[in-house]
């Protein structure tokens, strides 16, 4: 009875025993892991499970009415991808959309950041004004753009009509030639504030003494930009371009709101194509296979960027 009584420990005694038997460093680690449990559970539920489920479904011929789980087809869905002309067209549209948007927004954002950084402090409110397009959801920006490019009452056509420039009542979003440039122009307008914000913050990290030294030595504004500003911004440029590129290749709300991938698939990106396969054609197996391939491609691109960044940092 006495031996059993010794083994019966209260919860408080058990906690004191654990704290006394473990080093303080291990206790802090356990406490940190305990606080991470809710976040890890949320990530697992919202990200990890859908990802693993998509990988699983990609090996099946899975339709919306396949309540038994579909038919296992192995790599048949993946073998179909290279022969899918819609897929190759969506890849081309995605790369054109993402690369063009990133390059133009990158250059314009850097130029605006350099201009704003040279302005007096009383003009800093301009930063807030330029950030407005970035804080708006993509679907809201798309709705504004639809009215802007409207064939009958759009602001663009009304302005061009008053100036007697170009054809009257031109259908910008219904023309296969002008639909993609129109979408890209709106996306650039919405992306510039992101580059502006990051570049403005990075410019403040450049030591003021180095600028003064170059100006004392008679360096021109171009020399200061080439030999001081751009080298200091190199790592930031790599990171921000990677983030913007991944964000743009996955852009859905803006394009879907403006054109829904039309006309004649002229603005159909891979994100829209996967959505149409899954939720309009209900071919979940094939859409999941394309999603898995696209995920691997994005991971490879990110790994290359990170490797370049590390090489630049070591050099």
Helix and strand topology:
Elements: H1 2-7, H2 11-21, H3 24-57, E1 60-61, E2 71-72, H4 76-80, H5 85-117, H6 125-135, H7 138-148, H8 155-162, H9 179-203, H10 208-216, H11 221-232, H12 234-249, H13 253-258, H14 270-279, H15 284-314
Antiparallel strand pairs: 1-2
Structure description:
The chain has 315 residues and is mostly helical. It has 2 domains: 2-40, no CATH class; 84-314, MetI-like (MetI-like fold). The chain contains 15 helices and 2 strands. The chain has a two-stranded antiparallel sheet with strand order 1-2. Helix 5 (85-117) packs across helix 9 (179-203) and helix 9 (179-203) packs antiparallel against helix 12. The longest helix is centred in the first third of the chain and has 34 residues, at 24-57. It is globular, with a radius of gyration of 27 Å. It starts with a helix and ends with a helix. Residues 1-9 have low confidence and may be disordered.
Mean pLDDT: 84
N-to-C CA distance: 71 Å
Helix/strand order: HHHEEHHHHHHHHHHHH
Rounded to an integer in angstroms, the radius of gyration calculated over CA atoms is 27 Å
The CATH superfamily of the largest domain is identified as MetI-like
CATH topology of the largest domain: MetI-like fold
For the secondary structure, the number of strands is: 2
What share of the residues lie within helices?
Answer: over 70%
Widest sheet: strand ordering: 1-2
Total number of distinct structural domains:
2
Largest sheet: 2 strands, antiparallel
- The 3D shape can be described as globular
Low-confidence stretches: 1-9
- Provide the β-strand percentage band: under 5%
């Amino acid at each position: 009875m006495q031996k059993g009584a010794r083994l019966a420990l209260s919860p408080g005694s058990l906690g004191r025993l654990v704290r006394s038997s473990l080093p303080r460093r291990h206790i802090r680690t356990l406490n940190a892991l305990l606080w991470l449990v809710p976040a890890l559970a949320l990530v697992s539920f919202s990200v990890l499970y859908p990802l693993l489920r998509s990988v699983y479904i990609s090996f099946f011929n899975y339709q919306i009415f396949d309540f038994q789980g579909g038919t296992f087809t192995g790599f048949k869905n993946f073998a179909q991808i290279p022969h899918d002309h819609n897929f190759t067209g969506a890849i081309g549209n995605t790369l054109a959309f993402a690369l063009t948007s990133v390059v133009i927004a990158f250059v314009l954002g850097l130029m605006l950041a350099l201009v704003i950084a040279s302005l007096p402090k009383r003009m800093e409110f301009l930063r807030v004004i330029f950030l407005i397009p970035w804080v708006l959801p993509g679907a809201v920006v798309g709705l504004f753009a639809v009215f802007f490019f409207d064939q009958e009452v759009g602001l663009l056509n009304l302005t061009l009509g008053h100036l007697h420039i170009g054809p009257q009542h031109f259908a910008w979003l219904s023309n296969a030639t002008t639909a993609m440039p129109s979408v890209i122009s709106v996306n650039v307008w919405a992306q510039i504030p992101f580059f502006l914000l990051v570049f403005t913050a990075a410019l403040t990290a450049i030591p003021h003494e180095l600028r003064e030294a170059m100006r004392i030595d008679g360096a021109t504004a171009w020399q200061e930009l080439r030999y001081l500003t751009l080298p200091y911004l190199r790592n930031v440029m790599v990171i921000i371009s990677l983030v913007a590129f991944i964000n743009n290749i996955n852009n859905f709300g803006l394009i879907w709101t403006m054109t829904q991938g039309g006309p004649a698939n002229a603005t159909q990106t891979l994100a829209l194509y996967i959505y149409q396969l899954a939720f309009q054609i209900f071919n979940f197996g094939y859409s999941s296979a394309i999603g898995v391939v696209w995920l691997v491609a994005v991971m490879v691109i990110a790994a290359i960027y990170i490797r370049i960044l590390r090489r630049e940092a070591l050099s």
